[in-house]
Automatic annotation (TrEMBL):
Lineage: Bacteria, Pseudomonadati, Bacteroidota, Cytophagia, Cytophagales
Domain Glycosyltransferase subfamily 4-like N-terminal: 17-179
Superkingdom of origin: Bacteria
Name of the molecule in the record: Glycosyltransferase
SUPFAM superfamilies tied to this protein: UDP-Glycosyltransferase/glycogen phosphorylase
Native organism: Hymenobacter cyanobacteriorum
An example Gene Ontology molecular-function term: glycosyltransferase activity
One Pfam family this sequence matches: Glyco_transf_4
């Protein structure tokens, strides 16, 4: 009897986030061929995306001062080393940078693969003395120790090579995958009567994702206010996060009528902006919308954008690093200077980023003009929606995980 090879997957935590969702998807799919064990630094918080595979906690908490952080870092390294020695995995695949360092320094049985989920050069959360240490010391010094580094977007590779000195031969891109049939099925779930009334009242622009610095939703409110001065419309946010209160305050300061699901007001069509919070099935709010808007400042290979495309929505996205251009205009290279005018790609519309103070007024005006033009053009919306859904056939589970299995088997033989 032949037993399946063992795979160890490592991530700092099993909380809420795109990387955690991808980690879950990988764990579920790889379990069809391998004996998969998940490892986390600690079990604080809920496992929001349970896979059914064994989960091992290294039982090392975070927080504390510099000395405590260093002690915890060492404990994580030694804990993972003991786990590797016990499991004897074929490979250890880490997700997110903190897990990468522990994976690289722990040693022990199993080849080392890193999965890089987003831009390192443009991540505004990598700042201060610790950010300098990560960018200037840790990534350049440690990442070349990996046997392979998988990036979820092609445009992360030149960042790692040119910005951090990572060896090109260690890098390859395997995009995130999407459960196309499952998303399509869930998107057919009916809205409540109150929700349907909102969607019937005016064209609906929808965006989904965490309410965070990265997703950069505040300028979208200014753009929507400008659109609203030209025609009726609704703006729907699906998701929650630490910027909830500032975004609500900004919307109300613009004179927009705001509905928030966590407040006690009834849901009616009388509002301009709707914050629906976290939803078990976000897809049912995407499919009936008029268009999807995606204002992110930086990305990896964005799940929210891809899910909207699966739902057949025309999409408008910042040309941010990285992912949207690869998804919407795959035959084109990233421009050497930031996009200043709307660009209709093969599968959607790319627009200027909204985080450059010197050009923000003009960039928002370009967004406003593009949105009002698209809202007035039903034929173009239908065309882009059909093309978006077609594009997502390139990122099915079967296609993407064939690449992962090929990589694991190759690295395991080396």
């Amino acid at each position: 009897m032949t037993f399946p090879s063992k795979i160890l997957l490592l991530i700092p935590n099993l909380g809420l986030g795109g990387a955690q969702r991808v980690f879950h998807d990988h764990s579920v799919e790889l379990a069809n061929k391998y004996a998969v064990t998940e490892a986390v630094f600690n079990a604080d918080g809920d496992d929001l995306y349970p896979s059914g595979n064994p989960v091992v906690s290294l039982e090392v908490s975070g927080g504390g001062g510099a000395v405590a952080k260093l002690q915890n870092f060492r404990r994580r390294i030694s804990g993972l080393r003991r786990l590797r020695e016990r499991l004897q995995p074929l490979v250890v695949i880490s997700h997110l940078e903190g897990a990468d360092y522990v994976n690289l320094l722990s040693g022990g049985p199993g080849k080392t693969i890193l999965c890089v989920h987003g831009s390192k050069l443009h991540d505004a959360n990598i700042r201060g003395p610790i950010g300098w240490l990560r960018k200037k010391v840790l990534i350049p010094a440690l990442y070349n120790r990996a046997d392979r580094i998988v990036t979820v977007s092609r445009d992360i590779i030149p960042e790692l090579v040119e910005g951090f000195g990572v060896k090109r031969e260690k890098l390859l891109t395997i995009n995130n995958f999407f459960e196309v049939a499952q998303i399509e099925a869930k998107s057919q779930e009916a809205l409540s009567a109150a929700e349907a009334a909102v969607y019937a009242a005016a064209p609906v622009l929808v965006t989904s994702g965490r309410l965070t610095l990265q997703k950069n939703q505040a300028p979208l409110l200014d753009i929507f206010a400008a659109v609203l001065r030209q025609q009726p419309a609704k703006l729907v946010f699906v998701g929650d996060g630490e910027l909830r209160d500032p975004l609500l305050s900004h919307a109300r300061a613009l004179g927009l009528r705001v509905f928030a699901a966590w407040e006690e007001a009834p849901l009616t069509p009388d509002y301009d902006v709707y914050f629906l919070g976290l939803q078990q099935n976000p897809f049912k709010y995407l499919r009936p919308a008029t268009a999807f808007v995606f204002p992110s400042a930086w990305e990896g290979f964005p799940m929210a954008l891809g899910e909207a495309m699966v739902c057949g929505l025309p999409v408008l996205s910042t040309d941010c690093p990285t992912g949207p251009r690869e998804m919407l205009a795959p035959a084109t290279a990233s421009p050497t200077t930031p996009l200043r005018r709307a660009e209709t790609g093969a599968y959607g519309v790319l627009l200027p980023m909204l985080n450059q103070p010197a050009t923000l007024v003009n960039d928002q005006a370009e967004w406003t003009a593009s949105l009002t033009a698209l809202l007035a053009n039903e034929h173009e919306r239908a065309r882009l929606g059909q093309l978006a859904a077609l594009r997502m056939k390139d990122f099915t589970r079967e296609r993407i995980f064939g690449q992962w299995v090929e990589l694991i088997e190759q690295v395991g033989r080396e």
